[in-house]
Write a structure and sequence with these properties.
Layout (H helix, E strand, L loop, with lengths): L3 H5 L3 E4 L5 E5 L4 H16 L3 E2 L2 E2 L1 H15 L5 H22 L4 E4 L4 E4 L2 H10 L14 H8 L12 H16 L2
Helix pairs in contact: 2-3, 3-4, 4-6
């Protein structure tokens, strides 16, 4: 019988031409994602997340905790790629939930759709949304907590005209006009 650690670290190898290994995949489970989210929150509180994203020290700390906690080899690249995936999911699901007729079911941890035709129509112009119709995201709250502030919404954004007007006002105030 396989141990639970062996199951969660299933690494599949992709072979390129000449049967050379080109890539391996790290398999995550919900427990690992929850530990990752907790470590990232701690790292954020320590100031290891800036406007440009997570600092290398945060990624390394998360990899070390996961490796020790689950007795697997987790690299900072594994952590970075998982965060990248979460950010992608956050963007797609947030866009969906911003549309009329689509809601979040916190009990089922998935998107609910009032009208299947509206969903199909939305998916014709938003191809990346389709896989999320029945996708369960048990850790959606963690994803929102860690990714929401990373996404530009346009709220508070300044246009070139706004910037020009603000600079003109500042210049006029300095010159006494």
């Amino acid at each position: 019988m396989e141990s639970s650690n062996e199951k969660m670290t299933d690494k599949r190898k992709v072979l390129g031409k000449n049967n050379e290994e080109t890539r391996s995949y790290f398999t995550w489970n919900l427990e690992m994602e929850r530990v990752l989210a907790d470590v990232l929150r701690d790292q954020r509180n320590l100031g290891n997340k800036g406007d440009g994203g997570w600092k290398r020290s945060a990624l390394n700390a998360a990899a070390a905790v996961l490796s020790t906690s689950f007795n697997v080899n987790v690299t900072s690249d594994n952590v970075k790629n998982r965060i990248k995936l979460w950010r992608s999911w956050y963007g797609i699901v947030s866009d969906i939930l911003g549309q009329s007729g689509f809601d979040w079911d916190g009990t089922k941890h998935m998107i609910t759709v009032e009208n299947e035709n509206a969903w199909n129509e939305y998916c014709t112009s938003h191809k990346s949304a389709k896989p999320f119709r029945y996708k369960v995201l048990q850790n959606w709250d963690d994803i929102v907590d860690l990714c929401a502030k990373d996404r530009a919404t346009g709220h508070g954004a300044e246009t070139a005209m706004d910037a020009d007007e603000a600079m003109s006002r500042e210049t006029n105030e300095v010159n006494g006009w």
